[in-house]
Write a structure and sequence with these properties.
Length: 703
């Protein structure tokens, strides 16, 4: 092996590196504040048709003005004289509520008071005899808006905003869209497409949080445990509607900051940053191989071992091989199907002998035809039906009809976890992939618990086990943020549009407070035809520049689930996939530094360019580039084209593929991307540039 090239040595000598810390020494905390900064006293003024709250700038916040138009109770927020957020007007209304299936809204402000730092408003509405009462509490970098309806019996309350007033919108998490999201579509920014998400709630299978932020550096958090109906630019109407399915007081926080990253940090100050990462260094460095997209439910002992041997023999390293759904005799039995798995202990030994740990897919959902269902029901271990608490709740899912183990019942939880531990001990299983949800709105929570508590209970359960770098899908509750789980996406398709959605979706998930993201399985799944060679390779290249790699489809060969036929890939596919895995492993020391930084600050590892370069306006609509920490700009090819456009923000960038230095801002048009090239750029002035250069410009064997 040759050492680093002369050019690389020169680059490493030129970059400014932060001093290394001795072992066991941590850097000073740089965390986002846990509460709003102390604000200078807000000033209140009233004039004909308008009320205004002005919060002066302070050392840690830019200040803002909130103007209330008394006709229609409209709210407009500005910073330094520029509008950054405004509610909708006209027939939509800003503060809106539904009565008898018809939407109504606040109209004329009929009274107000400013006392003890709180502005209280009363307003008429479009419903005779009904009034709105709102309280606005300002602080340095945000204000709280609480409001309710009197004189009527609404079933929903909502806020509506003019999207254009705030520039572009982000956040939300996995977005349900008319164009196939989140499986094949994830608009970025959100207003560039349509989001129609009528069951946006804490029990959803989607990774979502009620938090949105904008290019104008405003943000919105809705503080609720109820299901929401969220529509962003539905029918291209230019509106954002955030409705809560409850008559309880509507509680929201509006953030006003200098940059979108500051808004994100404000939000993390409320929900919390990870206390740890549940993934080990090895799980960041190497991929996990999961059987799902390779076989779906058409898997057995012989197929799984053949899969493992092919990976091993072709140098496709990984820390774990996971057997996904379908291995049980019946869902919930926690016993191997004896026909498909005649000797699961021998299978486990063989997987370990090949150098993999062994993992298993599990769920809390117990099908009615399982031997365990009757036992669980008789002992009261299942969630009760919301309409009839005398019987277990039953839910239909992709594998049948089931009951759900009630994690709030200590006896039920002990029974379930005891069975898991016995299963793992008996068969040499090293970790688990938890799937399905921990609660369903058709069920009643345990006495003394709320639906949102099941996110916490699920997080606590999962934290007892090694999740092997595939993570888990818990959200909404602060415990989900603080647990530090890897977050995997919802199943994607296997085409180019799904590859692109996997990127923008990770940007959405990581910027609502879940920084340890991985895509759906490399190459996609979702019961679609097997990925083409080009999609599979480009997906692996993309994942190599993300925090973790989650693999399934083998680049040696796979099964096309739509035809049942074997798909053989060529040697170049294997070689390029292996090259992507090797690049990711070389990046592991740099990625581990970013994990440590996230534990200090809460900042995402994979993030949009504008988090690091807020003044670069072109960055706000880029969908196919991202920052991996502060030093690496990833720009892999996400289409079948031979060239792409690359935008570089301000800075001095080293072009890894071309071996040149480029000064930004600059847009590179017609950048050549043959299949073996993964464009990546290193910011030579950023922290971590040295480690990134060493990883991305490896030593090469002569010839």
């Amino acid at each position: 092996m040759r050492g680093p090239s002369r050019r690389l040595r020169a680059l490493l000598a030129a970059v400014s590196l932060a001093p290394a810390l001795p072992a066991g020494v941590t850097a000073p905390a740089q965390a986002a504040p846990a509460a709003p900064f102390s604000a200078p006293a807000a000033r209140f003024s009233a004039s004909a048709g308008r009320l205004a709250l002005t919060v002066p700038p302070s050392a840690n916040a830019p200040g803002y003005t909130l103007q209330v138009t008394t006709a229609g109770l409209a709210l407009a927020t500005s910073r330094s004289g520029t509008r950054v957020l405004a509610t909708a007007g006209g027939d939509t209304g800003a503060l809106r509520f539904r009565v008898g299936g018809v939407w109504q809204h606040a109209t004329e402000v009929t009274g107000w008071s400013w006392q003890d730092g709180v502005l209280t408003l009363t307003a008429d509405t479009t419903t005779a005899g009904a009034t709105v009462r709102a309280r606005i509490t300002p602080s340095a970098d945000r204000y709280h808006l609480d409001w309710t309806v009197g004189g009527a019996d609404p079933d929903r309350l909502g806020l509506a905003y003019d999207l254009a007033s705030a520039g572009h919108w982000y956040g939300h998490g996995e977005a349900k869209t008319p164009q196939g999201g989140p499986a094949t579509d994830q608009p970025w920014p959100l207003d560039s497409g349509e989001v129609v998400h009528p069951a946006f709630g804490p029990a959803s299978y989607y990774m979502i949080d009620p938090f949105w932020y904008t290019s104008s550096a405003a943000g919105l958090r809705v503080d609720t445990g109820h299901v929401m109906d969220v529509a962003i630019n539905q029918g291209r109407d230019g509106l954002g509607r955030f409705d809560v399915e409850s008559a309880e007081p509507y509680r929201a926080t509006v953030f006003v900051e200098s940059t979108p990253l500051d808004v994100y940090r404000d939000y993390i100050g409320i929900v919390g940053r990870p206390a740890k990462s549940d993934a080990t260094y090895e799980q960041y460095a190497k991929p996990v191989w999961n059987s799902w997209a390779q076989f779906y439910t058409h898997v057995d002992q012989a197929r799984l071992l053949d899969y493992a041997r092919d990976l091993h023999d072709n140098g496709l390293v990984g820390h774990t091989l996971q057997l996904d759904d379908k291995w049980e005799s019946n869902y919930g039995n926690m016993t191997f199907d004896p026909k498909a798995y005649p000797d699961p202990k021998a299978m486990s030994r063989a997987i370990h002998d090949l150098g993999f740990r062994f993992g298993l897919w599990v769920t809390l959902w117990i099908n009615l035809d399982s031997d365990s269902y009757r036992y669980a029901a008789d002992h009261g271990y299942l969630l009760k039906d919301a309409a009839d608490p005398s019987r277990p709740c039953t839910v239909t899912w992709w594998n049948g009809t089931a009951g759900i183990v009630d994690l709030a019942d200590p006896a039920a939880r002990a029974w379930y976890t005891g069975r898991l531990r016995t299963l793992m001990s008996d068969y040499g299983i090293d970790g688990l992939k938890f799937d399905t949800r921990f609660f369903d709105e058709r069920c009643a929570p345990h006495d003394g618990y709320r639906p949102t508590d099941y996110q916490r209970l699920g997080a606590e359960l999962a934290d007892e086990f090694d999740l092997q770098g595939v993570g888990i899908r818990v959200h909404w509750d602060a415990s989900a943020h603080r647990a530090g789980f890897v977050t995997r996406q919802l199943d994607k398709g296997t085409g180019w549009e799904s590859l692109r959605a996997s990127v923008t979706q990770n940007l959405a998930i990581s910027t609502i407070g879940y920084p340890f993201v991985t895509t759906d399985m490399i190459g996609g799944s979702s019961g679609r035809p097997a990925p083409t060679k080009q999609v599979l390779v480009r997906w692996a290249q993309s994942a190599s520049l993300q925090p973790l790699m989650y693999a399934s489809t083998s680049p040696v060969d796979t099964i096309d689930v739509t035809t049942g036929r074997t798909v053989d890939y060529d040697q170049e596919t294997v070689d390029l996939y292996r090259k992507a895995v090797a690049q990711h492993e070389r990046l592991a020391p740099y990625i581990q530094d970013q994990v440590r930084r996230t534990l200090r600050t809460g900042d995402p590892i994979m993030r949009p360019l504008f988090f690091d370069h807020p003044g670069d306006r072109a960055s706000y609509t880029i969908t196919d580039e991202w920052m991996l920490g502060p030093a690496v700009l990833a720009a892999p090819q996400l289409t079948d084209g031979a060239t792409r456009t690359v935008h570089l923000p301000p800075g001095v960038w080293y072009d890894v593929a071309r071996g040149t230095v480029v000064r930004g801002p600059r847009t590179l048009v017609g950048y050549d991307v043959p299949l073996g090239v993964t464009p990546a750029f290193v910011n030579l002035k950023a922290e971590g540039a040295g480690k990134a250069l060493r990883a991305l410009i490896p030593s090469r064997t002569p010839g």
